[in-house]
Specification:
Elements: H1 3-18, H2 25-35, H3 40-55, E1 61-62, E2 68-74, E3 83-92, E4 96-97, E5 101-103, E6 108-113, E7 119-122, E8 125-127, E9 130-132, E10 138-140, E11 143-145, E12 147-156
Amino acid sequence: MNPSQALIERSIPFLEEVKNRTAGGELEDWLNSTYGPGTALYDDLAQMITDGVEEGWAANVEVDGPRYRRSRIAEPSDVLNYFSVTAVYMNSVPRYRGQYHQHPYGELNLVVPLDPGAELAGPRGWQGAGWTAPGPGSHHYPEVRGGALIALFYLPAGRISYDITPAAVG
């Protein structure tokens, strides 16, 4: 089994468990208490996606040069309970904003710092190792500070919209 397929296989039981839950603060709290750093799921997924970035099969498409890259690892499918799997790599010590987007159905986002102190801005503030879960209809700039990190995210129905602009959001 190739490494990306192994990551997908490791994700299947997790996606089965969360398939009927709605992204937002309550789910974010549950993810961090149930599957936070030090748990088998978090540690396995974090290692697999870190290896994927290092090996060049994950987060390998430049969005804004080598400091902001992403790639879709799996499209929504029945076996994944119609979630997609995507990886993003961001690297900046000062605060850096990525590409503005919207989550029509929310997002489950595993945050894997590669540098001590690297954090991703989530809906409830800055997040180091752990999870964020922006709710349905949420929209934001992905932001990083403190160094390099990987965000492994699961999107219900694979839905993410990059055709929204901050000025259009009222």
